[in-house]
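Reposting from the mailing list since nobody answered there.

I have sequence plus structure tokens for a pair of proteins and want to know whether others read the tokens the same way I do. The first protein:
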Amino acid sequence: MSSQSRERNWSPGGLGFYLSRILSLLLLLVTSTPSPKACLVSNSVNGSSINCHPPAEPPRHLPADTVYLVVEFYNLTQLPADTLQGASSLQELHLSNNRLANLSAEFLLPVPRLEVLDLTHNALSRLPPGLFQASSALHTLVLKDNHLEILKASWLSGLKALAFLDLSGNCLRTLPPGLLANLTALQTLDLSENLLEVLPSNLLRGPVQLERLHLDSNRLKVLGDDLLAPQPGLRYLFLQKNSLVAVAAGAFQGLRELDMLDLSDNILTSVPTGLWAALGQPARAMKEGFDISGNPWVCDRNLDDLYRWLLANNDTMFSRKDTLCAGPEALRGRALLEGGWLPVR
């Protein structure tokens, strides 16, 4: 082939030119498509983000500028103590849906800037003392769906900035006094779906900014006068699906900011006069509403105070059709708000 023919074949519009472009595009696709065994890595001015899910192989060494790391849905049972070595800029660490049963006390030492730690759905039965000794920046700690049966206040020491603590879905039967004493920045505490029957009266005396408290799906039987008193700024209180048979008259005293209360699906037949004085109208309407359904209410004179409060606050009431009289027999199945069983003065 003459030089003139070759030049024409590889010039724009020639067959060779198009073949070359196709090969280049194929090469680009091959080199730019991540291998199924490689984690997804993205870079920004803030640092590197690494996202690993099977079948990708988790990295053995992290780039020094790693700020975000996800290693989820593996069958990891343990992590070497030096896993995070050299990644001192790490801010978020997600290790959910593994089988981690133990963590080294030194595991978080290399990452003092860590703000979010998610250990959801692992097999942790305890936390090593000193795990959070260098975690003064940690803002969010999620230990949901593990095997924790006990907690010690010393396990949480060092968490000066912690605002969100999720301990739901564990096997906790009791909590030690002073557990939260040093968590003065705590805003959300989730203890739902455990086996708690009794709470220490001073449980909430440490946090001074608590806004959300989840105690639902436990085995609590009594709500006393003093548990909630240290938290006047509480806005959301979830107590549904317990075994509550009694709520003290002063249990909600001082909760002037409460916007949501859920007492549904307990064993309450009556409540004391004065319980509702601090809540709802005329003091302050709850913005998100309340739910007292699914309780075996006995509709007699002992519910006089509750009935009148319901009349004043029925516009923020959930599950009205499921808030029913369980007794006396003549009133069984009647809605509390249907009226006719108590005179209105």
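The second protein, same order (residues first, tokens after):
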Amino acid sequence: MALRWLSVRSLGQRGADHWGSLCRVMARGLCEALIYHKHGDPLRVVRLETLKPPQLGDTDVRAQMLAAPINPSDINMVQGTYPILPNLPAVGGNEGVGQVLEVGSRVTNLKPGDWVIPSDAGLGTWRTETVDNMNRFSKVPNNLPLLCAATLGVNTCTAYRMLYDFETLKPGDSVIQNAANSGVGQAAIQIAKAMGLTTINIVRDRPDLQQLTDRMKSMGAHYVITEEALRKPDMEELFKKVPRPHLALNGVGGKSATEILRHLVKGGTMVTYGGMAKQPITVPAVRKSVFKSALIFKNVKIQGFWMTRWKQDHGHDLVQEMISVLCDFIQAGKLRAPVCTKVKFQDYTTALKAATTPFISSKQILIM
């Protein structure tokens, strides 16, 4: 998406007087955004700049951004490695929550004071204010916890669609997933619990493994297993107590994907939504071991999922319907935000550094 605002000047890093400066900027009809003019290391190419918003059109909405996360896909976009890239210069961020300030004369579904989240990728949420077409926003209740609303549109929707769209799961069934401590993984644990499913959650070994395990179990995880333990024959003992999974969620790729694939029930499905390992998925057709080959004897299905494509294919009304269901989960206490760290907008370099550091399980949230 092309940058719709005129860049005025780079602000850089500021100290305690930032908020007074921000108020003066907004009073002049300008706002601030994290912009990159070229692809590369986010810590080198992302800069805080002032912008002049466009005029409000008849079908447009002006919203003040309240909070926006830094997701792996956001980092990949800045780096230039994501499958779709906005025109440069671009405002970073694809997820977040804002409050409507003003609506055009033909807008009937939103009003000032409403909370909104992006209906699709490309809005550029790392900014203090945004103006765009009304169909680019989905309404959410303004009494949601701020962090739940800010992290609702990407990871949570991805988890929801994968759990509901690929296999007909019933209470008592099990699901296995790698990257289980990711934003998608944490959402999948909670939604699966609400569905009455058992989750087998694979994570990388780390110094704070017990702390991570305890946190995931507090969300509803039944089993938390390291990648190393997943490869051991002892896993077969687990399936004497738990039915083999009908569904595997793969956000890693490489050997991790192969391992969760081989534990599927006959005819099961592995859905790939990410590839953090940056390695291809190997699907065994013939394998000389105690495990039957996946394709020939187990007839597993290998599918991919991309939330952006789903939203584009299904349109605004179905996106809004999905968002409403997830908001009901939140308000019923069945779904909470992933583990987050709130960072002031002007301290964006701190957030970017944490978001690109391995084994940082906390999602960085920019607070405007």
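Reply #1 (J.P.):
I read it the same way you do. The two ends are 22 Å apart (CA to CA).
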